[in-house]
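Priority: medium. Attachment 1 of 2:
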């Protein structure tokens, strides 16, 4: 078992959008995420180590194996808080940024005072975008925090960056919605591309539809991975 600062931890080697799961669960949870894409949307799977409340962006996403210029976006249901990886005195850190996400050149980006001031709740998502210094090779980075005690339902009205914080691949369970026109959007390697499931009517019913696929249930979301939900709905991962 891997260790972090000599503390027994929960370890997961999760390929981006794959389904490997942690081998154990301790007081500190660590997820090692393998990816080879420009975009990696990650579920917020942990709480703050000290308070067990919402975790800060800088505490969740560690800088090991990431490069200067990488971008981290936290969506606050109105605009993005953006952070760029920088280095000072040989130490990498997340600094506030106003670099616009490649998803949409018209979005609003907030420049926060510090990555330590932006907190994200379990069940939400954060979006890592590799910068120009990335060599394009597969990489592994890490998130960690305190394992959560319980999961609250996630409500979306408009759009939200969310994710599956559990340790198994599963579909969200809807308690309200979805409604026609809702979308599940997963960005991938192409900076402006994505896998998109549309909730639409066909053959007298409503279906989740992606090119070449149709399902009555929402797609299974791999453990620890995230996506955009566009629409109005409430769901949980129980």
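Attachment 2 of 2:
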């Amino acid at each position: 078992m891997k260790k972090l600062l000599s503390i027994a931890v929960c370890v997961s080697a999760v390929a981006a959008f794959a389904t490997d799961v942690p081998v154990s669960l301790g007081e500190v949870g660590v997820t090692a995420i393998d990816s080879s894409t420009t975009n990696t949307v990650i579920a917020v799977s942990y709480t703050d180590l000290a308070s067990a409340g919402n975790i800060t962006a800088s505490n969740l996403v560690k800088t090991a194996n990431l490069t200067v210029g990488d971008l981290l976006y936290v969506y606050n249901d109105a605009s993005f808080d953006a952070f760029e990886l920088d280095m000072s005195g040989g130490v990498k850190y997340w600094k506030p940024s106003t670099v616009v996400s490649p998803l949409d050149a018209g979005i609003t980006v907030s420049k926060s005072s510090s990555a330590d001031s932006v907190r994200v709740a379990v069940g939400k998502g954060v979006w890592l975008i590799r910068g120009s210094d990335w060599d394009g090779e597969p990489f592994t980075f890490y998130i960690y925090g305190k394992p959560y005690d319980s999961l609250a339902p996630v409500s979306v009205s408009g759009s939200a960056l969310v994710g599956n914080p559990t340790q198994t691949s599963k579909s969200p369970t809807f308690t309200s919605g979805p409604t026609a026109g809702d979308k599940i959007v997963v960005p991938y390697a192409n900076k402006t591309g994505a896998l998109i499931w549309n909730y639409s009517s066909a053959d007298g019913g409503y279906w989740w539809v992606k090119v070449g696929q149709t399902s009555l249930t929402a797609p299974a979301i791999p453990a620890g991975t995230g996506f955009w939900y566009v629409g109005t709905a409430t769901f949980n991962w129980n």
